[in-house]
Amino acid sequence: MSSVTKNPIVWKGYAIHDNKKYRDFKVIDFEPKTAGDYDVDIAIKYCGVCASDHHTISGGWGETILPLITGHEVTGIATKVGPKVKDIKVGDRVGVGAQICSCMECKPCKTDNENYCPNLVDTYNAKYPNGDIAHGGYSTRIRAHEQFVFPIPDNLDLADAAPMLCGGLTTFSPLIRNGAGTTAKKVGVVGIGGLGHFALMWAKALGAEVYAFSHSPSKKEDALKLGADHFIDTSNKSFADPLVGEIDLIVSTASNVEHLPLAEYLSTLSVHGKLIYVGMPEDSLPPIKSQQLSSNGCFIGSSHIGNKKEAIQMLKLAADKGLQTWKSVIPMKDAGKAIQAIEENTIRFRTVLQQDIIEY
To answer: Does the keyword Metal-binding apply (predicted)?
Structure first.
């Protein structure tokens, strides 16, 4: 007899019911996915608010499963583990990011690229192969496959760790995979916000010489505090001229790309340098001609969150270096205010929701 059983318990979460009223969160009861041998149940303490949450609940990224409980930067305490779970035990401090399951059988899954599984399950607004709905972290609890449950170092605050599990990992993975601090000695970061502030911290901690690019001169002081060695004001139309051919890797976190000076950024790259997009705006990227890539043989690419090994490495780096998320912590009932702050661009640089639902 299979040890997979249907769990009859009911948990609670803050959900939206209408994409036109996407800041109107109401507490609902929901049933978690069917419990599996490799699943871990987590009592949620904190959940970060990601721009992805806004894109999803507003309908900007397409159809949503309503009612929708969003949130994919979760930290808390493991309360139950399946019989085949190896590395997590009840009582452990753990977290879950933007992915909650994958097929475990394809080439990406078997080569530490489970974050590129063609059949991955997102942490919310998604369905499992059996039809169960994946509910996010604006809730009391979450159930996840152990491959997507990350142990949190004891000396890393759970509130700090939460936004690292999406915003942090989304920038850490492309830095690591493209040699930041080793083969990529000079690293640029475009945008100083929820993603960009992590990228600056990671790049500096990995040993790179760091260039912060921003069209807002007011962000210079923050950029330097976060680890930038140089601040480049892109509101100056000739900003790229002194940097032509200098930078090995650029990670772009920009969420507004309508006026992004793409050709200028590409010109700053060294031979075969890379520009990696991790910001996921709803608009298309600016047009580019192949001739603008040929002078230095540069590459344009992207990246999707990160794998478990990278998540563990990132959390250890943060703990060892004493790196902290720049954040505000507010009650989970104020999720609507956090979403509004994303729209108004008033966050410096992440918002973290603290669990406040009385479960029983």
So the answer is: yes
